[in-house]
Amino acid sequence: MTATHTPIDPELSDFVDRLDAAVEAHMEWSRRLLRCAVLRVSPGDDVLSAEAHRLCRFGRWFQSAYAQFEALDADAAAAIAHEHEAMHAAVRAICDAVLKGQPGSAEALDTFERTQRAFIDQLAHVKTLALATAVRHDALTGLPMRYGIERDFALCRADALRHGERLWVLMLDIDHFKAVNDRYGHPAGDAVLVHFAQALRKQLRKSEPLYRFGGEEFLVLLRTADAAQALRAAERLRAALARSPATLPDGRSLTVSFTAGLAPVGAEEELSTAVARADAALYRGKQAGRDRVVLAE
C-alpha cells in the first residue's frame, strides 16, 4: 500500500481564509464605530445602508457560499445570518443617531457587542468544522478517510440490525497501482484513484459509505441479508470497473481492476477485527492472482 499525504483542498483553504478575513473585518467595526462617535464622520455605506448586511464584503460572499456553511452546520449557518444582520442593524442605529447629533442608545450598543461576539464565535465554530473536514476527507477523491469510521461503523451496524440485514466490511485494493505510477506517472495514478472512487460511488447505495482507507486501498460498509447478496454486490462493483476504463491525462484509456476481501461483522465485533479479517481475505485474493473478491473465513 502506498502512503499518501493529502493537502487541504484549495477551495476549502479559500473558505477558511475568507472566514478569517470576516472576523478581522468585523472586529474593525469597533474602531469605525469609535471614530463615528468621537469625530462624527460617516462609517460608510456598508454600515449605514438598510441592506448593509448584504452589501458588506462578508455579506456578499456569505450569500454565495451559504450552501457550504449549511453543509457544515445548518444551525450555525442560520445563526450567523441572524447575528450578522442584527449586528449591522445595531451599528446603523448607533451611527445614525450620532451623525444627527444625538447620543446612541445603550440598548443598541449592548446589541452590537452581544451580536458581534456571537457572530465571531459562530464563525470560529464553522472554521473548526471546516478544518476537521479537511483532515477527514481526501481532497483528491472527495471521499471520507479512515478517521471517523468507528462512529459510522457503529451506526451502520445498528441500522442494519433494525432492518434485518447484516453489515459487511469490504476492503478493496487497486491491482498493480504501483505499476501505473511507475509507467504512466503520478498524475495518471491520481486520475485512476479519482475514476475508481467515482465508479464505485455510482454503484453504491446511500446507506453504503465508501472510504479511502489509505493509498490505493478503499473500504465499503455493505448491508445485505446474506453472504450471497454481499458477494453479488462486491462483484457488481468489479464488473462496473471492467466496463468503465479510466481516462489518463494523455487521453489514453486504462482498465482498472481490484482485489477485495469481504468480512461479515459479528453482533459485538469491533471494526478493527472485521477490517483485519477482510484484509486477510484480500491478501489471499492477491496470492490467488488478483482481480477477485474473497470471502473472509
UniProtKB/TrEMBL annotation:
Catalysed transformations (reactions): 2 GTP = 3',3'-c-di-GMP + 2 diphosphate
GO biological process, one term: negative regulation of bacterial-type flagellum-dependent cell motility
Annotated coiled-coil segments of the chain: none
EC number, UniProt record: 2.7.7.65
Domain GGDEF: 165-297
GO annotation, cellular component aspect: plasma membrane
SMART domains per the UniProt record, alphabetical: GGDEF
InterPro entries recorded: Chemoreceptor_zinc-bind_dom, Diguanylate_Cyclase, GGDEF_dom, Nucleotide_cyclase, Rev_trsase/Diguanyl_cyclase
Protein name as it appears in the record: diguanylate cyclase
Organism: Tibeticola sediminis
